[in-house]
Amino acid sequence: MTVRPIRRLATSVAVAALSMSVLAACGGDSGKPKLNWYINPDGQDTLTSVAKRCSTDDYDIQIQLLPSSATDQRTQLARRLAAEDSSTDLMSLDPVFIPEFANAKWLAPFTGDLAAKVLDDDVLKGPSEIVQWEDQVVAAPQWSNTQVLWYRKSLAEAAGLDMNKPVTWNQVIDAAADHDGTVGVQANKYEAYVVWINSLIQGAGGDILDPATVEDGRDAKVTIDSAAGEDAAKVIEKLAKSKAKQPDFTTSNEGTSLGLMFPDKGAGEFMTNWTFVYKNYEGLIGKPGGPKDKAQFEDLGWARYPETVEGKESKPPLGGIAIGVGAFSKHRDFAQQAAACVTDPEAQAALAVSDGLMPSRQSVYDSEELKKAYPPDLLTLFSQSIDSAGARPKSAFYSQISSALQSRWHSPNSVNAGTPKKSADFLNQILEGKALL
Q: Which residues cross the membrane (predicted)?
C-alpha cells in the first residue's frame, strides 16, 4: 500500500473526475494518441511535469487523477480493467494491487529489452520483487516507500537509548512512557494497520501466509497463528496499555501523529512513518505543527524500524508505486515506452527532491540532486530499509486477506495473545469461501 496523510475528496468531485476522464478517452481517434495515466494524489505537480517531458512526437501523456484512498483507487481501476477498457493506458499501482491485476491478466507484461530496461540490476531488491508475477515483469518500479523510526534526539537521550544501535518496540514504548513522550503509529481500521501488523510478524521471523504457498491463491497456507504472531500481538497490546499511547490510538493514521513530534508541551515522540516525514517537517519550520525553528528541526532523528524481538533484524514495511500498462490499451507499445520514461532516474530524482517519494534505483540515491536534498545517513537508511524491507503477502486475494485481518485485529485495544488464532481461523474461512467479510 502507498500510505500518506489522509486527504478526503468529495464524492461528487471523484465522480466528476471519472466522467471527465471517460469523455477525454472517448474524444475520437484522430490526431496524435493521448495516453491516459491514472495517478494517485502524491506528487501531482511533479508527475504532471514528468508526463510533459515524456510525451513525444508520437503520443501525449495525459494525467487522470485517482481518489486519495487506496481502496477507492483499486476499485476504480479494477472496474475499468474488468470491463476491458481500452483507454486505461498507464496506471500508478500500489504494490498490493499488482498480484491481483496480474493474475487477472489485466496488465501487459514488459518483454525483451524493455523489461531489461525497467528492471535492471540498479533497482533495489524490495521493489524489484513486487513487480514480478509468474516470471514476468508486469510493472515498472517508479518510487519506493518504507518506514523508519523518527524521534526527538532529546527524548532518546533522556531515556538513555543509543540510537546508533538497533532498538526494540519494547524499549521505544518504555522510553516514551517514562520520559513524557508518546509513540506514534497507524492503528486505524485500514490498510496501514495491516502494514504494521505484517512488519511486526515478519520482524519476529514469521509471515501472515507461508511464502512458499502465497501465490497459490485460495490454497495458500495461513501461518499467522504462530509464535511470531503472538510476538506481534504483544507489541500492540503493550502500546495499547501504555501511557505512551497517543489519544487517537484506535483511529491513528500517517498524518495524525505528525503534530506530536514538536508539541507545545511534552517531550515529543517516537514515530514509525514513511519517507515523506523529513520533507514535511523541513517545510513546516516556524509554522503550526512543525518545529518552531531550525534548531528544533535539528532535534529530529531517524533510525531503522524497531525490532519486534530483540536480536532479530526488523523488517521495515515496503510501499511505493509501480507503473502498469493496461492489457486492453489501444496503444500498448506506446504506453510501455512511456512507462519506461516516467520511471527513469530523472523522474525518480524529481519525486524524491520535490515530494519526499524515494527512488527505487540505487543510482538515484547516489546522485548529486539527492545528496543536496537529504542528509547522507538518511539516504543510506532509506535505501537499506527499502532493499531489505518485508512485503505484504503477494497474493491475488490480498484485498480479502487485508480486510479479514482488519476485522479481527481492530480495535488495537482488544489485541491479545488469542488474536493471531482468531484471525487465522477467520482468514482460512475467507480463503475457503466459507465466510463473508
A: none
Rounded CA gap, 17 and 64, in Å? 8
**Cβ atoms of 183 and 176 closer than 8 Å:** yes
pLDDT of residue 6: 36
Within 13 Å and on the Cβ side, how many CA atoms surround 127? 34
* Regions of the chain where pLDDT drops below 50: 1-28
Nearest to 257 by CA among 265, 247, 242: 247
For 34, the enclosing helix (H) or strand (E) is strand 34-39
Q: What is the largest CA-CA distance in the chain?
A: 69
Domain boundary assignment for the chain: 11-145+319-387, 147-303
Between CA 412 and CA 382 the distance in angstroms is 28
Q: Answer whether 11-145+319-387 and 147-303 agree in fold.
A: yes
CA distance 329 to 343: 19
C-alpha to C-alpha distances, 13 to 17, 68, 69, 71, 88, nearest whole angstrom: 6, 12, 14, 17, 20
| Distance of alpha carbon 189 from alpha carbon 196, whole angstroms | 12
Topology of domain 11-145+319-387 in CATH is D-Maltodextrin-Binding Protein; domain 2 (3.40.190)
Place of cell 515522540: 269
- Chain segment 33-80, per-residue pLDDT in tens: 999 999 999 999 999 999 999 999 999 999 999 998 888 999 999 999
Per-residue CA distances from 17 to 11, 14, 24, 80 (Å): 10, 5, 10, 14
pLDDT recorded at residue 25 = 44
Q: Which residues are 148's β-sheet partners?
A: 273
pTM for the model: 0.91
CATH architecture of 147-303: 3-Layer(aba) Sandwich (3.40)
Phi-psi region of 105 (alpha: psi -120 to 50; beta: other; left: phi over 0): left
